[in-house]
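Throughout our pipeline, every protein is held as a single compact record rather than as scattered files. The record that follows is passed on verbatim for readers who wish to inspect the format.
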Amino acid sequence: MTFSRTEPFCDWLSVTCSPTAGLSFLDDVERFLNFHGYPISFEKDGRSTILYHVGKGTLKLESSRLFHSSSASGSTIREFESRGIYRDYVNVLGSFPDGIPRPHNVTRLDVAVDVMVDAPLILRELESRYPLDRFGFGRKAQKITRLYSKRSSDGALTGTWYVGHKSSSRVTCRVYDKQDESLNKRSEVIPPLTRYELTFRKDFDCSLYDALMPESIFYTHASPALLPAPTDRVITPWEPHGLVPWESA
């Protein structure tokens, strides 16, 4: 199947760090958000949870005795990208103000590719390829879950095709009708669009490099069984980089 597609992009980023004095990034993230004019929308339990409005998205800061975390939604990342400050945000997470790498851990990374094809066509193709509803990113196959409904416009069966739905697996995926979701959730009318999205969990050894340059991690795990890699270039095989110190100008 030939189709137009986007480049892989980060659609969620959660990073944690130690709450030990002098190691946490929470104060620096708050200064970054305040400097760029993003307001607090919610506080809970003495600032243990703080939500910021970032464009159409939300950035969530959490603090506990064991860890501090910052979680940015896909819409938040798009807002940062539109202003040219996404890499600056990542630098705040990964390094101290003087540029020395800061201890941290990427605990969730979502990477997506949008293809300009009506989702029911792709969903039917995936169903025919995996009729036993099993799919494996490694040696162990995971259960496929299909959450579908009939589309009001034409009655086509559409929705989301999940691998590892609500599981604790290190990597899971979903393929879903982005056009239908945009219409139902936000009354937004967009052309036919299908999203392939992989979620990498905390013990997958992802890095901030993967959040900025996600092509390698996406196609190493999605191609060829889920979405074949582009043929116009060589995709560098992904390797874990979670322990590599973050360095960025």
